[in-house]
From TrEMBL:
<protein>
    <submittedName>
        <fullName>Hydroxymethylglutaryl-CoA synthase</fullName>
        <ecNumber>2.3.3.10</ecNumber>
    </submittedName>
</protein>
<comment type="similarity">
    <text>Belongs to the thiolase-like superfamily. HMG-CoA synthase family.</text>
</comment>
<dbReference type="InterPro" id="IPR011554">
    <property type="entry name" value="HMG_CoA_synthase_prok"/>
</dbReference>
<keyword id="KW-0012">Acyltransferase</keyword>
<dbReference type="InterPro" id="IPR013746">
    <property type="entry name" value="HMG_CoA_synt_C_dom"/>
</dbReference>
<keyword id="KW-0808">Transferase</keyword>
<dbReference type="Pfam" id="PF01154">
    <property type="entry name" value="HMG_CoA_synt_N"/>
</dbReference>
<dbReference type="InterPro" id="IPR013528">
    <property type="entry name" value="HMG_CoA_synth_N"/>
</dbReference>
<dbReference type="Pfam" id="PF08540">
    <property type="entry name" value="HMG_CoA_synt_C"/>
</dbReference>
<dbReference type="GO" id="GO:0004421">
    <property type="term" value="F:hydroxymethylglutaryl-CoA synthase activity"/>
</dbReference>
<feature type="domain" description="Hydroxymethylglutaryl-coenzyme A synthase C-terminal">
    <location>
        <begin position="255"/>
        <end position="391"/>
    </location>
</feature>
<feature type="domain" description="Hydroxymethylglutaryl-coenzyme A synthase N-terminal">
    <location>
        <begin position="3"/>
        <end position="166"/>
    </location>
</feature>
<dbReference type="InterPro" id="IPR016039">
    <property type="entry name" value="Thiolase-like"/>
</dbReference>
Amino acid sequence: MAVGIEGISFYTPGYSLDMVDLANARGEEPDKFTIGIGQSVQTVIPNFEDVVTMGVNAASKLLKSDADRAAVEMLLFASESGVDNSKSGAMFAKDQLGLRDSIRAIEMKQACYAGTFALMQAKDFVTLHPDKKVLVIASDIARYGLKTPGEVTQGGGAVAMLISTDPKVAVINDDSVYESKDEKDFWRPIDSDIALVDGHLSTDIYKEMFMDLWNAYKKNTGLHLPDFKGFAFHLPYTKMGKKALEQILDEVTSTKQAYFMEQLAASQFYNRYVGNLYTGSVYLSLMSLLKEAKGYQAGDRVGVFSFGSGAEAELFSLTLTQGYEDVLAEQDVQGMLDARMKLSVTEYEKVFESQKLDSSDDSETEGVALAAEGKLAAGQCYFAGWKDHYRLYKTAK
C-alpha cells in the first residue's frame, strides 16, 4: 500500500521587498544579498496576516468541497511562529477551514523541522488507517529585526499537504534517517518576537548533519547519488542548499555534478523570491523542483533534506507518481509571486513595525480589519485583531 502526498499547495502574502533596494538602504553591495546569500526578493508580512491565516489560505486550495473537508481525519499544524502560548494554531485553522469537530488537531514545534515530523506522523497514521486523510500545514514568519545581519533572510508563507493512500504527487518512502542534537545556533526567547541566531554555527551544523544523514542513508538503503533525480533542501536562504550538496558531488562524474547543480537551481527558484518560511521551506523547495526542473517522470526518486536549528534533521526520499505534473499545474505559484505589491524600504519598515500588536488593545481591531478589506481576494482568511485578548479571524468578502 502506497502512502504519500495527494495534494500540495503554497500561500504567501501579497507584499514584497526587493533585496537590491534593501542592500542599498543598508549600505551593502547588492551582490552580497543576491549572490552571496542567494536571495532576490522576500515576502513582507502585513499585520492582518499570521501563521494561521497563511496556513488556512494555503490549505483552502486543497479543500475545495464539503467532501474534501469531511475526508480530513487529522490536522497537524507545524510552526515556530505560534500565535498563542497555549492554544494550538491548528484549532484556529480548523475553525476557519470548516473542518468537522470529530478530528484531532494539534500544533508541533521544533524550529524548521516540525513540518517533516508532521508529515511522517501523517504517513504513519494513514498507514494504519488507509481510509483516512491527514492535512499537514507548515506555516511560519521569519523575523530577525530591522538592520540586523539576519534581515536579508526574512520572509514567510505556508505549505499545505494532504496525505492519503491516493498519492497523486509522490509516495513517501520508508527510508528516513534522522538525528537530534542540542545546539545553540538559533532560538527565540519566550519574551521576544525576534529570532536570535549564530549564522556561522548554524551553517556548520546544517552541513555536518546532512553528511551524517547522507552516510547513514547510503549504509541503510544501499542507494547512492546516481539513484536520485534531484533533491529538495531546507533553504533558510538559497545558498544553504548549495553548501550541503557540494559536499557529496565528488561521488559522481563532472557531467553528473553539473546536472545536480541544475536541479539545485530549480529547487531554489521559488525560495529565492519568497525568503525563509521555516517549517515550509523544504516543501516550497520541493514544489519549485517539481515545477521548474525538466525531464522528471513517474518513478523518479527525489531526496528531501529537512533541517531545524537547535538542532534536528531528517533525510528521506519520495517517489513521484503518475500525473504529479497535473497536481502541480493547479498551483500558480509564479502568478502569486508576480502579483505581490512591491514595497519601498520605508514602507516595508512601517509594515514590519506594525506587527507589534498588544492583545489588550481592542482599539486596533478596526484598523487591522480595514487594512485587510479590499486587499485580499474573496474567501481569504485574515487576522481581524483582538477582542478581550482573544485573536479574531475573518474571511474577506
